[in-house]
Specification:
The complex is a heterodimer. Chain A is α+β, with helices and mostly antiparallel strands. In chain A, about 10% of the residues lie in helices and about 25% in strands. Chain A is built from two helices and seven strands, in the order ββαββαβββ. Chain A starts with a strand and ends in a 14-residue tail after the last strand. Chain B is an alpha/beta fold. The longest helix of chain B has 13 residues. The chains are: A alpha+beta, B alpha/beta. Chains A and B meet through loops of A and loops of B.
Chain lengths: ~100, ~300
Amino acid sequence: MGAWKVQVQADGREIEVRPGETLFDALRRLDPRLLLRGCRNGGCGVCKLRVAAGEVQTGLSSVAALPPEERAEGMVLACKATPRSDVVVEIPPRPTNPYTPRSH
Amino acid sequence: MGIMRLGGVRIRCLDLQASVDYYTKVIGFEVTGQDKDGNVYLKGWDEFDHHSLTLVPSNRAGLEHISLKVESPDDLVFFRNKLEGAGVKVTTLPAGSEMGMGEALWFEDPGGHMVKLYAEMERIGTKVGALNPNPWPAGLQGIGAPRLDHILLAAEDAQKSTDFYMHLLGFWMSERLITKNGDLIAAWLFRTNTVHDIAIIAGPQGKMHHFSFLLDDWNEIRKAADVIAMNDVKIDVGPTRHGISRGLTIYFFDPSGNRNETFAGGYLPYPDSPVITWTEDEIGRGIFFFQRELNDAFTTVFT
């Protein structure tokens, strides 16, 4: 079985996924700027993205971070999604805290 | 008279058993009970009340409420009058709303967090006892945290929440972080002699940034980091030092993604201590004194 690939829809960059690796870990290896490094346990939701093509297996996550209506639109938390085929992802703009100034 | 301390936090968990395992084997708290709804109560070895941490099974992460312990039942009357006088809706909860807890007041702060005030809780005693005790007990697990220390709450209007805790609940301010226009970004508030019992940061309404466990010193923070790493717990930042509070710290995430901290050091503030001010241009040094740069996730990740 060849390794599955995850591809970033916006620019076509792709990386081979290691066995059992989450979308989060694979995408951070491709480019750490792609996703904020949040809780990685399905609670905070900063690694949310849309699976545009392909299959993933998802784990437990907070409905506050990933509401059912977003899940129905193909959104997943990358830290809780493991590819089960080649996958294309659409990554939304990085979340920010609008209430505090940026550090740099 | 008044609030004595942050008595407890009640935390939502996606997988209750995973959280119980984590808070006992990694943090080193002990389970003191489970109620009929399945909520699990825990405390640190140096805490004497029934519990300071409650784990609630839920489909979401985050904080359910904080509990503040007041000195006497008279304080509940005093705070009910004071809060209602300021237009805050206050509900009285009968004894037993949590295991071992007496009658409590229940209300919402301006940041959208639910708050309980209570005067009485069943006493279990510390693990070392109160008669000729050893400095620490044998058989601690993991980090072996002695007690809960503080919580950092998010609020869209940090100033409004800070005013609420200071003017209505009697907290004092040790430090604050302000924008170049003088607007409040974050405030460190206390009722004990520690740098903070509650801190407020500008952020999404009703969300929690982290809650923290007390440790003795830098060696213990280093040991905590070892324990965290050995258990594959997701580390956020550290070990490092805060400029603000002078605290020694490591941040990491519980199995539901709630941010935890172990905190040591700091200094002793008094009600009349001058408030220490940090300005926005020094935010990196204020939050992470060594790195001098705030990572974006630190002020963006909440549960």
